[in-house]
Amino acid sequence: MAKKFKNTKTPEQRKAEAAELHAKIAAGVESLTDSQQWEKYLTWCRSFHAYSMNNLLLVMAQMPEASQIAGFRSWQTRGRSVKRGEKGIRILGYAKKKIEEENDKGETEERYVEYFPPLSVFDISQTEIIDEDKANAGVIAHRLEGDDAEGIADAVENWLTDEGWTVTTEAIGGETNGMTSPELRRVIISDKLSPAQRAKTMIHEAAHVVLHADQDLREYEEHQGQKETEAESVAYVVAGMFGLDTSSYTIGYIAGWAKGDTEIIRSTAAHVLKASHIIYEALTETAEQVEAAA
Does residue 47 lie in a domain region? Predict the structure, then answer.
């Protein structure tokens, strides 16, 4: 049986509180996009290559837990070095070379031929920091520190378990905090999170369960920025309604996935608020419910 928090708020109060919290996300992202920190973040991002779908599939096949990839020298320019003994993830590069060949008239012509040489890239989990300033230049989402005094994480885990999902805590490579697999009806939470971050992440994954479990993988991949914005917005709203402020992580996380576009946040408001109410109500019980169960 999932733990239930006592709910003393009216439906109107809950709706108003959730809407106010959601509005703060857009305001926070707008503030961030005007800051020097956001400029540093964008500069940092531009130095990483945009990988093709084929290369992303190659990465997933070799290291499914990879979260951020770059070449050996690219990592060095970002204040990180590949650890000794790490095996590269093989992908296909792109290059052109000029060749000369004889045409039908016996004339020599020059043309360019495309080819795809194999390259090695490395995930952030395979690197270590060698320059703190450079390595931290791209960090705008700071993991939460502190406790989960209300027991939010356990309450969400119990609810998901009651709904037929398996929740486990495991080592996850890179900077990934949690993963949801609709096919396996499974949620995995990283074992290196503080209690407060674990609580936020548990709500984030629960939001994926509520919002995206019925969608196929291709749908998620095509609109990943929107999906992650929705899930993290739900985490911020629900955590806030239980008194846990996640803004130091949420604002930067959403700004990154939404690329600073606050319209994405506003356009997903209806989905976010609906999912927030579903999760909040699943974790709480009214005074009338408490009395009826007595």
Answer: no
